[in-house]
Amino acid sequence: MQHVEISTTRANPLVDPVLQVWGWEIPVYLFLGGLVAGLLALSGFYLLRSRTASERGAWPQAPMLGVVLLTLGMGALFLDLDHPWYVWRVYLTFEPASPMSWGSWILILVYPALFAAALLHPPERVPFGAGLLAVIRRGSEWMWARPRLVQAIALSNLVGGIALGLYTGILLGTMVARPLWNSAILGPLFLFSGLSSAAALMHVLTLVRTHGLVDSTYADLLLHGLFQLLKPPGRDPSTAGEAMVRADAAFLSVEGALIALFVIGLAASTEVQQQALQLLLTGAYAPVFWCLILGTGILVPLVLQSLELAGRIRHTVVPALLVIAGAFLLRWVLVQAGQVSSWT
Amino acid sequence: MQGSPRPYANPYLAGFGLGLVLLAAFVLMGRGLGASAAFSALAAVIVEWISPGHAAANPFFSRYLGPGGGLEEWLVWEVAGVFVGGLVSGLLGNRVRPAVERGPRVGVPVRLVLAFLGGLFMGVGAKIAGGCTSGQALTGGALLNVGSWVTMICIFGGAYALAWLLRKEWT
Amino acid sequence: MNAPFYKFDVFGDTAALGVAFAIGLGMGWFLERAGFGSATKLAKQFYFRDLAVLKVMFTAIVTAMVGLFLAAQLGWVDLSLMYLQPTVLWANVVGGLLLGVGFIIGGLCPGTSVVSVATGRIDAFLFVMGVLASQFLVGEAWPLFAGISEAGEMGQITLPGLLGVPYGLVVLAVVLMAAGAFVAAEWAEVRFGGVDRAAQPLLGAGWRARNAPRVLLASLAGLALLGMAGGDPYRGPRVVIDERELALLIQKEADHVTVDDLATWIVEGRMEVRLIDLRHPAAYAAGTIPGAENVPLADLPAAEIEPGERVVLFSQGQTHAAQAWMLLRARGMRNTYSLLGGMDEWNDRILFPELPAEPPPDQAAEVERRRALALRFGGSPRVEAAAGAPVAVPLPAAMSPPAGVAPPAAPIPTAAPVKKKKKREGC
Prior knowledge:
The structure holds 3 protein chains of 3 kinds.
Chain A: H1 25-49, H2 53-56, H3 61-80, H4 99-120, H5 130-144, H6 147-173, H7 186-210, H8 224-230, H9 240-267, H10 271-281, H11 286-309, H12 318-340
Helix pairs in contact in A: 1-3, 1-6, 1-7, 1-12, 3-4, 4-6, 6-7, 7-9, 7-12, 9-11, 10-11, 11-12
Chain B: H1 11-29, H2 36-50, H3 52-57, H4 59-63, H5 74-92, H6 108-129, H7 133-142, H8 146-163, H9 167-170
Helix pairs in contact in B: 2-5, 7-8
Chain C: H1 13-33, H2 39-43, H3 52-73, E1 87-88, H4 89-106, H5 110-118, H6 122-140, H7 142-148, E2 153-155, H8 159-163, H9 167-192, H10 212-228, H11 243-251, E3 256-257, H12 259-267, E4 274-277, H13 281-286, E5 293-294, E6 311-314, H14 319-330, E7 336-339, H15 342-351, E8 354-356, H16 364-376, E9 382-384, E10 390-391
Parallel strand pairs in C: 3-7, 4-5, 4-6, 6-7, 8-9
Antiparallel strand pairs in C: 1-2, 9-10
């Protein structure tokens, strides 16, 4: 039997000088993972904070959508594996020191949390007939009758989302051989990027669902709770849409600050990290980084959103779509540039 | 005021602004604006994606590939900027709305077919003339390029010559 | 100031893409502001109801043309470095007519269709798909189009060159022609488009009234007149140099390379520079550094050196190379270096180095390397006796140091100078 051993640390012909083994699959997986993490965290938070039935029912599709997107992301990861049919072996063991093992287990734990949250919001129709719907309804009512259980589900969603979001960044950070990824900021950066793209996705879907481009007709209450917590008492955002946009803007600002920290961190590190950073700042990936990630991915949406909030222009899906595109490109560039960067 | 589109800018002032952008391109890059070659590069990238060998063997597509070509083509980035610039300007003017622009006497399907057809003609024309309205007429016009002035006159000549036949589409 | 900056290597290819994006932002912004995201507005041009296309386009042309003319007159921009799409008469005619047909059928052009798609127009999306489809068509049937796209080639010529009149005169004529066209356009809009005559800035207001378009046109015409006083806008032999910049470069020793570096580059096949021998052709023929080309100092101003090209200049000693360096820098060539010590230093250090006969062990490797280097370039090391006095090794006359060195028998691998990749600059 022939063994192929790949060292992820360094000094391996498959690692140095250039290891371009990750194509489109890993960025897609990281993007969808971050998006689902954002959806989880936001819906979990909302569930914890919600008081009334109308608030609870405001955005029922989020968990179900999360299930679909996470499955797509796992599919992309699956395609990337050399031995996809041995995936089950990962689950025979738990290695506390291995981020891969952590990640696999986080993913496994996230699914039940998502399903439980989805069950709390039973759909109007199901594809397999009325009998199934009745069962789902009964399960949902049973759960709502137990506030402790609902709280536990909400908490598991919140915690699972944050863990998943951090993990997508930490996964890259553990590859010591790639100086561009040697940063502790990647975890929080990917988490906040996931949160902002999740907020943006919900924004798009509510706009599409309500067919309304007038601000008061689209109502996304998922973040209502968050802003009831953050805002000074007595001042209610005039519409739910505003709360939505505010949340996205807040997440985007944090994301921008984290990118700045990431850049500063690498620039203050050793020469190898500085060289790796140059790939983003002045090298081959600079146009995408400056124009499409910082420019149209963060800065332009922030300006547009603040103008929307100020009532100067209409609410549209455009800032949200730009945020989502920017979030994907962030992963894509970091994965590609990271693989080009090396210690030699 | 929210909701209603704001009026367009004074054409002389918009033209002055566009002229300054063109001047900036001259001073920074030594070249002008353009658009159609971005489509050529995009088409070449798509062909290469489907069949790399075919793209490399084709004298037209292979010109737009390789280092500094494909998605690294200067005009691809310029056109990406045009898209974002137009989008932001449209959003700030409340002029972004999904619509089919057509004259009062023409239906949506006919207009869409004609738009596609117009694109076909323009794409072929631009490749023969060596540029479109931006690359030839605007840029070459400012550089006093002989071929660009010929192209510009022919663009307006061709359009005015057919305008009467197509009056039902627009008026 | 030496512009266009990109051609003088102030920034590289990657930054150029960012510049492209920024310029595109401006272009998209102003096209959208002008209303060019709307096919119906554009098409009104051809029914004389709304001539915004003519006004915007010609204002832009006139602005950029006068601006570029003045910048060239002030010596800021090298006009000859502007990319001129070659004139191909019949291709321009046929292509232009097809573009016109496409314009009236589709109501958009490639640039404006992008803006129109960005602002949500579905017809523009179909138009863009049409342009894209046409590229597949053109690509697959290229032999069909290659013929017509080359019919009537006239090279890169400008209107002033064709007509044999001063550049400034054509600039002024275009400004005046544009002003006339604007007045006619406003008259047509009043006549056919139902526009209120009083609202037309050029036509409507009283003869003496001032408004922005009038001031703009008058200033452009005035600036064109002013520029005409400067004569030919193309760069002559006179240049302006930045004393402080050059003095600083020289003090930082950023103006030269050493013979050791040069020899290493040649041996390792990393000659990514153009090596220019400034001496007389006779001296060059007698022996030079491998890979060098001969451009005698007096011919340097006429030499075809691209701005941004990496050039190393050398002469017999140091002086001429340093002076030539100054000349090229003054023309804006940023990547120019002189060879420190010139041919004399090359002979002393590379071809005929003085090496100890019995080097101390810690220097043995270095001495061996220098010896191999000398032999490689066809020279021979001079061996220093243990006592210290150099012992001259008998040499053939042709190879004695002052006369230069005949080209070595064995070809030395040198990579061809890497030229900056030529970019397509057309539309």
